[in-house]
Request: fold
Amino acid sequence: MKISIKNVTKYYDKKVLDDISIDIDGYSAVAIIGLSGCGKSTLLRLISGIEFPQGGEIHINDWKSTKETKREYQNQLGFVFQKHNLFPHLTLKQNITVILEKVKGQSKEEAEARAEELLNMLHLHDEMDKKPAKVSGGQAQRASIARALSTKPSLLIMDEPTASLDPILTHEVLMEIKHLKSMGKDFIFVTHELNFVKNFADYVIFIDEGKIAEHGETNILNNPSTDKLKAFMKNVSYD
Reply:
């Protein structure tokens, strides 16, 4: 996976990301970490093409994120959000088939076969005909991952995929994500689960007050070179 971020600035009522640049090549799981409000989720939204910077450019692999190329760009990506964002009135299977039929133009039979394949892979065979309110939080989040995978994206974007889950459900979801990595999927993700970062990520971007304060392979978490990352690692709790 290639990530190229050039002089990216983003502001709302105040500047959130301040002229950040980074080039990463050859890693399959990139984690973005930092304190709440530092700009990490904003950076993830820019990378995903959900929002756009006021200045600078973002390239993922051979795709450039612009308003003009948004649809083509996002077709390469799958999204997993903090909350599962499943349609509450549809079953887990229907949450996938509706995307494949309406967006990808697949037949009902093709869509159902793809949905069942993914839900089986994520151990949701017995839940596929249930609505989100009738399954656990971990099962709903796994269904969200299945939906993200349904369009066969090259890259999964995840924003705190376990944020609302208890420790048991968190473990359940993280094990499935690790399994997907072993199958060759690429990931860019924000998480507060530092143990997961250490065990899953290949590369880490540490954001502090809208700037990239430090970045490198995951071992920088054990041996930070900047005072800011040292302070962060000293003060955050491990989940």
Summary: The chain has a mean pLDDT of 92. The chain is about 35% helix and 25% strand. The chain has two domains: 2-76+154-235, 88-152. Helices lie at 40-48, 70-74, 92-102, 108-121, 137-149, 167-182, 194-200, 227-235.
